[in-house]
Amino acid sequence: MRTSTNRVVVGLDNGGNVNNATVLETTGRFLVDGLIESPSLVREGPDIAIDALARTFDNVLALTGTAKAAVLAIGLDTPGPASAEGVISSRGSTNFSHPAWRSFDIRSGLEDRLQLPVIYNNDGNAAALYAHHMHFGSAGGEHSSIAAIVGTGLGGGVIEAGLVVKGASGMAGSLATYTFPWRDCSPMTNQSRGATVVSWVTQKVLRP
Q1: Between β-strands 163-164 and 145-150, what pairing exists: parallel, antiparallel or unpaired?
Q2: How far apart are CA 41 and CA 51, in angstroms?
Q3: What is the rounded CA–CA span in Å between residue 50 and residue 24?
Q4: In angstroms, how far is CA 134 from the centroid of its own chain?
Q5: Rounded distance, CA 74 to CA 51, Å?
Q6: 10 Å Cβ neighbour count for 136?
Q7: Is this structure's pTM higher than 0.90?
Q8: Partners of 152 in beta bridges
Q9: Residue 132: φ, ψ to 5°
């Protein structure tokens, strides 16, 4: 663990079970070289989950010896589906099953709690952006890439000239929601017009 006297941004990864955090100096140096996990408590609703994110934020600052005054902004990612601005789907989701999450603006909620600017991406886009810049380094702005992210579900992201392509609803790179014609649709896909990418991968690739 390193300490910093420079200005930084804090990254908060909000998951279905745990939160993770990192600190990045404006020089490009990460101050965290491992996982710093804490319970996300998302199943208990927005108020408790926002408090849990705030504790994760405070903890990573303490561990890296970083003052809150040095923080320029916070990067937040969550599982989807959510809008480009961080509004959770009105239908809820697997990770955000508590009724109070429906149409909840998690970006603004955290921003109000911490009184710092919060930039939002869904977790697929955030992973794609990280992979892009780790691969291309300082030349990231000169390249484009597409990433498929396999985790609890299947996600993805599209990076154009070093920037995330979000699309009108924030789902431009969300591979899991794309549908395509597939005659061998079983009842588990729940798709009368075809299969989603995630249902096809689950059945044809990941199932034993």
Answers
A1: unpaired
A2: 9
A3: 22
A4: 17
A5: 15
A6: 16
A7: no
A8: none
A9: -60, -50
